[in-house]
Amino acid sequence: MKKQIVNLIGSLALLTGIIVLYPRCESGASEMAEMDAVAGMVTDRGGAPNQAKDICLCLTNEYPVENLSKAEQDALLYMREEEKLAHDVYTVLSDQWGAQVFSNIAGAEQRHTEAILCLLNKYKLTDPAGNNAVGVFQNTTLQKLYNDLIAEGKQNKAAAFAVGAKIEDVDIADLLKAMPDMDNADVRAIFGELTRGSRNHLRAFVNNLEAVNMTYIPAFISQQLFDEITSSPQEKGGSICGTCLNANNPNCKANPNCTGPNGQKGCLGNGPNGNNNCIGTGPNGNKGCPGNGPKGNNGNGNGPKGNNGPGNGNNGGNGNGPKGNNGGGN
Question: Backbone dihedral region of 39: left (phi > 0), alpha (psi from -120 to 50 degrees) or beta?
Answer without folding.
Answer: alpha
